[in-house]
Design a protein that fits this description.
Rossmann fold; 2 domains; 6 helices; 12 strands
Length: 278
């Protein structure tokens, strides 16, 4: 049983405010400890249930959040440093994995009653696949689905768990580690309580992974991304494989989500280069 774990910070136990998740802020090192608590709890539960190997992709900020010496064993490897798209789009993800785990994820941009909701970059207002609005949970599940990998486990706040259920039903193990009161406030359980919940849910996810259906959108795929600033879209004008729908929305298309996502990632990365050049 080989796991691919995507690790974020906004959905980690005890984190409720942007100041806690920004590298360099006073609270950030404490947040890294909270992140390691949740990650290790999930790993303990997964390995106790029969997982044999895990690759963890640290996807928050600059990808340098995992403490390599904090209780990780030899069966765990870390993708650190947030590789650029030119290094590959999936950072080790392939059809050799048996399940995808999303640890510390969050609800999509614009979600109500959710903690720190957003979709990848702060200036992205929304993403749709074939007309269905999704956030990071849905898109990551769809990408894994193209490799034949089910989304077996999600940990998040109440908003992220609700989003998981609305999109994917009861199949993934979705563990709520805090209840959102507003975008920057919530009710948080103790580390002891969340650790137990995460261990138990991760164990169930490993045992049930083989029966969880894949998330696969029907071909062809149309991926639409809306930004909050027309200047962002203007910088993408003329890029190959990008359709400008209006002043704030772009679209990519492909036979599957991997191709459509690749074109989006290339354009989204190139616009930062264009902004610096300007």
């Amino acid at each position: 049983m080989k796991l691919y774990i995507k690790l974020d910070m906004e959905g980690i136990s005890g984190i409720v405010h942007p100041d806690q998740v920004r590298p360099g802020n006073a609270e950030y090192e404490r947040s890294r400890q909270l992140l390691m608590h949740d990650l290790i709890s999930v790993l303990k539960g997964a390995f106790a249930a029969g997982a044999t190997e895990a690759l963890v992709y640290d996807m928050h900020a600059d990808g340098r959040n995992v403490s390599m010496e904090a209780g990780l064993n030899a069966r765990i490897s870390i993708v650190a440093g947030r590789p650029q798209p030119a290094s590959g789009f999936f950072y080790g993800l392939d059809d050799s994995f048996d399940a995808l785990f999303l640890v510390g994820c969050h609800a999509r941009a614009g979600a109500e009653n959710a903690l720190l909701p957003h979709t990848y970059d702060d200036d992205i207002v929304g993403i749709h696949i074939n007309g269905t609005e999704i956030g990071e949970i849905g898109l990551e599940a769809a990408l894994a689905g193209e490799f034949g990998i089910p989304l077996a486990f999600v940990s998040s706040d109440s908003g992220g768990v609700r989003e998981t259920r609305e999109l994917l039903g009861q199949d993934p193990e979705a563990t709520q580690v805090k209840e959102a009161i507003g975008p920057t406030s919530g009710i948080c359980m103790s580390a002891h309580a969340t650790g137990r919940l995460l261990r138990e849910a991760a164990s169930r996810a490993v045992r049930r992974a083989g029966s969880v259906p894949l998330v696969v959108f029907p071909s062809p795929i149309r991926l639409e991304v809306t930004y909050d600033d027309p200047a962002v879209v203007a910088r993408m004008d003329g890029m190959e494989q990008i359709e400008l729908i209006d002043e704030t929305t772009i679209a990519t298309e492909g036979p599957n989500i991997i191709i459509a996502y690749r074109d989006f990632i290339l354009a989204n990365s190139a616009r930062f280069v264009a902004r610096r050049a300007a």
